[in-house]
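Q: Hi! Curious about what CBM-cenC domain-containing protein looks like structurally. Here's the sequence.
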Amino acid sequence: MSRRRKRLFMLVVTAVLFVQSLGSVSNKALAEGTGEVVHNGDFSQGLADWWLDTGKTSFETADGWATFTPLIQDDMWAQSLGQTTGALAKDVEYTFSFDAKAPEERGIEIWLRASVNGGNNIVLSQQTLTLGEEHHYSVTFTPSEDLDSATLQIPFGGNMTAFSLKQVSIRPTSGGTPGGENPGDGDGGAGSSPQPPVNTLLLNPGMEDGLTNWQAWGEGFTASGDAAHTGNASLQVMLNNGGRQVVTLQSGKTYKLGVWGKTAGTGTGTQTATVMINYKKPGDDSSKTYGSFQFGPSDTAFTYKEITFETPADMVEEWGTQFVSIWSEGADQVNLDDFTLSEVTGGDTGEEPETPAVPRTLTGLKVDDTAIPDFDPATHTYYYDLAVGTTAVPAVTATAQDGNQVTIEQAQGLPGQADITVSDSEGSDRYIVHFRLVQPATINENFETTEDGGLPEGWTTNGTNPDEGSYKVISQDGGKLLKLKHDLQNSPNGLTKSFDPQSGNFTFEYRMKNTDQSAVSIVRLWDSTSDQDALSLVEGWGLRFNMVGQNFASVEVPGHRIVDGDFNPNEWRDYKLIVHVPTHTYDIYLNGELKQQDIPFLGDVDKIDRLSIGHIFWSTTTTTYVDNVRMQPLPFVNNHVENGDFSSGLDHWSVSGSGAELANAYGRGKIAIEAGKGPAVVKLDGADVDIGQSYTLRFTLRGSSPADVNVSIAGNDGEDLIKTKAIETTTEPGQYEVTFTPGPSAAAPQNTVITWTVNGDSSSDWTGYLDQVQLLTSDAVVSLPKPADYVAVDWIKTTDGTAELPYAGVNYKDVSVQFANESFMKLDTVYVIELRDPSGEVVDRSTVRMEASASELSVIHAGFIVPGEATGYRIYAYALKPEQSSAYSPVVAADLS
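A: Let's find out. The predicted structure is below.
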């Protein structure tokens, strides 16, 4: 036997022993309960009960599919997926079914074999399939003798194409259990109708309070009034949807879980919905199942089903969360009602359950002794707005239920947040109060209070000639607008509005409509003291920006034009500019879409206090209308993640996965995965979100080669999925967004974990950079910085030197800077090294233009003559894109010493 074949045999034996070590109780429950003999056939518990060499194959789940991607090309049997199934009964017909697909055609084999008396192997089913588009596969077989188990194996080596499986199932075709027993026979079995116990450990068991106390996995998990066993509602679960409720169970106890349910009688595959009682261990991504039962196509009327199970005698608190969960893997619709979960003592199914512990919730929350408006114990996140200029940090106080302890970490500054923890012997919950600083709008003009023919207060004409044009407020289309008409060529025209100087970040919004493109309107923001423009937007023949109107025919700066094919006269266009005065840049949104980012100012403007709206001097034929002009300083918005920019190193960050590493590299997260290993699971904890509030997760990511990445946001310290999204990162720096709104059933959203699961490269080491992680409320007008920093300054060194001829004897500073190209591609780069005096003025500058290979380190030298007293002089280093003023890198400064 070859060495490779030996390794496979040992792996199979190990997998068999592992499955058997789970205990015969699980197999017995399968054999005597539902008839399902495949363990974890929906892969909801990851690879539990399956064997797979993850060093050769990556595994991930999304949207109910389990996807397997070969990392190396081996022979067919050396790369395989499989498990040891539950028991099979003699003379019972079974249906072996599953869904499968592949991104491109590939062959695959699926074997089901078993050992019989005498040590011989028999083949129960063998299928050779060509996978492609999604397809449901099904085959029947009948064992000729009772089998303790069978071996399900899928060899797939020799082909590097990925494939996906869903809902792998082996069940009796008739819907009965092995041995031909009718699941409806016997007391308490499916099909019988015992009266459910009055007492239950579940909250809202009849769904009369909507989804209160339940957590949904998908939008098809709702409380419905269309059908009910009793009362006015039931739980309605649609195909490929599910949810759960967390419960508290005691060790060494016997419990009974039951529910009334019915299906629509239609669906796909096995056409069942499964009710389970599960638990999870801390640090284990997979859940364990005490037991389960199904509702199938024959259960079209409300039917009662239940299962009895025992909790381990040595179960301790550290075993973590237990929960009742429901998932419909085949039924188009299932309705469930009147859930019961009660402790069984001496066969009495109606024993009074233990009284649940007092919930860990606050009863009151105050800021500076004033109650927070609309406080709700079920709401864990609050926003408290303060006027800009406030320096005193408010004090937060809170009260809780008797028996609970409250600790408060007050905000350390403004803006900031106070963290409130309420705890008891069983655990703790977290509340958060965010303090924001806001100020009123600088301009807020819709012209509604201005009389027709006049101008609003503070708006003045630019010229003095009464024939230059018509500028006035008019009534039109049921409201009032500002009308601008230029009649005289080569003369000052338009309107100006003065306002308080703006030196920070602000938004500038307006609506504009032109009667035709020859209007060539100009909107300017500028500084009256220096008479320099920050920006000049020209709308005509496609939007152009930062163009001086009088020099309209000049050659445009590359990228400084938006060619808008939808530009139609007499249609309103909505503009939003996000102006960053400190960085001398701005962004343009047109009709809600980000068009350009980080556009540089025209002049060296450190404040803006004037707005002008007019026309190109020679544009005299048409009219421009303006409405809803608003300028609003940006609020100090709280980022709902901590250390998303790696400014505090790797605080709150962690990584797991074979061959995966995470490091803080130049202020960004560097992910490394060894060839053929992974995936890398990168986690950021400490985030907080609120139920019903819409959020946008933003981040930048790039890699040494294209890679599939799954992003997930989960509450309850990562246990309860809120949102997941699959992206593909490339070698170019990408900006990605994930928008989500936690529903009313989201668990502990104030303890949210964000996870990036990155699949590397099968043939070589993979490197990627993750940075600029922002979790903002979706209405926060803060744009993600453009990820253009390809180059990092690794180090700056200075030494004293003495010049040779012709400057013999002159002392100077020899400066060397190491730059790191992190872009995964060649870069034509301008390296800049500057000497600046204590005021920040550039005394001398050295530039070098050269091409750097991917991941190359480049050392650049410069020599500067400095005065004898050089206190406060510093060296600055950065890299630029040739022919453009935008940077490849952040600016890094170092002292001369």
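A: A fun detail: The chain has six domains: 3-172, 215-343, 362-438, 443-633, 653-777, 791-895.
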